Amino acid sequence: MTCFICIAIAVQGLILALISLIDSNFAVVISTLAYTVLMLATFIYTRITKKLNFFYVSASIMVTCLTLWFLYSGGTEGFGIIWIAVIPLFTLYLIPYKGFIILNFSVLLFLIAGLWTPLKNTTFVYGFTDVFKTRFPLLYFFEFAFSIFLKNRIYKTERELVEQKDMLTSENKMAALIQKSFFRQEVSLFQGWDIACTCIPLAGISGDLYDIYPKQNEEPSLEKKPDDASEKEEIGGLGIFDSSGHGITTGIITMLAKNIFKQEFYENKNKDIVELMEKINLRFNVEKGEVDTYMTGIFVRMKDLDAKGNGQIEFVNAGHQAPVLYRKKNGSFELINNSTLSVGAIGLSSIDPYYDSINITLEKGDELILYTDGVINVCAPGGRRLGSQGFINILASNIDKDADSQLSDIISDIASFKGMEPSKDDMTIMLLRYQGL
Fold first, then answer.
1. 58: part of which helix (H) or strand (E)?
2. Cross-strand partners of 311
3. φ and ψ at 295, to 5 degrees?
4. Buried/exposed code over 156-188 (b: 16+ C-beta within 10 A; e: otherwise)
5. How far is the C-alpha of 129 from the C-alpha of 257, rounded, in Å?
């Protein structure tokens, strides 16, 4: 807006200078060209530095000089009168509160000095009519007083908005802290699996969610030593989910969802995984109430090893990004897409979902990579999107490392790809590598 005003005033000054040149009014030509150059310089400075301090100074200088010129020359066919009359309104939105008061009070003093003091009868002041000399400072005073009232209201409104913004920022930080504490989970080596996970929120509060479900033993062995650090947990399953929207409401929904998913996973551990997802969808729709949101996600359940000691997993993809499967034997990567029958996410009350399960056997060194769409939607400067293939290329360059190192380097490579381009969504990645027993 400031740049537009600078250009508008500069163009107006240039046009006026050309008209005055035709009329051979060289004094007006020089004065208008002077503030035209000043506004152009202000425009260039503001565009380069993105700061408004020079504009505040240049606008004040221009207004003061035009006031003095108006008193001396009388303006050009009423332009000076119009200009002086709109100065309070012109500076109302453009100059900070103190600067606005000082500038307009100075203009008022110039008008009083020029039109109400003995200076009015000298060659330094234009020969205005007595009626104009009497009334114009009064007109300007009342306009200035009204502008102060408006400026004060604007100032109070701006202060209230700043206070509300600070309060909202504080609440967002607190909500993010609560969510982070609620989501805190130690990811360690499980029996036969090397797992690494990360969630990078776009803002403080994340709409992404991941969770890991250790296997619960109904009859713990009396011979097991609970303080034995070498004893690794068994993993029962895990999940990754992405909620629509952002903000505090989304953060609350993800915490609600985490609780629902965890409870349903353990309460239905002996039921078919498709039935489990149907129960989750039904309960999520009921408990979120009228909140217009939904989630995509992948629920993974570990199964018993096959006869060759290979790991077996079963998962349901509820409208989420297709996971990537790495086969160590041939070094290949592939996207595991849903069947054509599968449709629906979690929490879409207007759609009856149909979930389909997928079974995968993992040999030693094979890896399943789960992620949210914020990962593949990052863009490099210029707008080039990472995409699924770009993500797979990053995975391939880091696949030979352990899960923690691999994840760290993947995040670094994504950051290098996007450079200074801001992310547009939360990013969550889960690496699930089968190590064998």
1. helix 53-73
2. 362
3. -135, 145
4. eeeeeeeeeeeeeeeebeebbeebeeebeeebe
5. 78
3 state SS of 54 = helix
Name the 3-class secondary structure at 124: coil
State how far the alpha carbon of 139 is from the alpha carbons of 82, 102, 112, 145, 146, in Å. Answer: 12, 18, 11, 10, 11
For the stretch 267-276, pLDDT in tens is 988 899 999 9
Identity of the residue numbered 368: L
CA 267 to chain centre: 38
Annotate 256-274 with b (16+ C-beta within 10 A) or e (fewer).
Answer: bbbebbeebbeebeeeebb
What phi-psi label fits residue 331: left (phi over 0), alpha (psi between -120 and 50 degrees) or beta? left
Comparing C-alpha atoms, which of 13, 84, 97, 5 is closest to residue 46? 5
> What value, to the nearest 5°, has the Cα angle with vertex 317 and ends 314 and 321?
125
80 pLDDT higher than 70: no
Our CA dihedral for 9, 15, 21, 25, rounded to 10 degrees, sits at -50
Answer left, alpha or beta for residue 356, where phi above 0 means left and psi between -120 and 50 means alpha.
beta
pLDDT averaged over every residue in the chain: 84
CA distance 210 to 407: 15
pLDDT digits (tens, 9 = 90+) for 299-324: 999 998 888 889 999 999 999 999 99
Report d(CA 297, CA 243) in Å as an integer. 9
Q: Is the CB of residue 319 less than 8 Å from the CB of residue 344?
A: yes
Residue the block writes with tokens 């998962």: 315
For residue 95, give the DSSP letter. S
| Phi, psi (degrees; rounded to nearest 5) at 304 | -65, 155
Give the burial class of 39: count Cβ atoms within 10 A of its Cβ; 0-12 exposed, 13-18 middle, 19 or more buried.
buried
Q: What is the pTM of this model?
A: 0.64
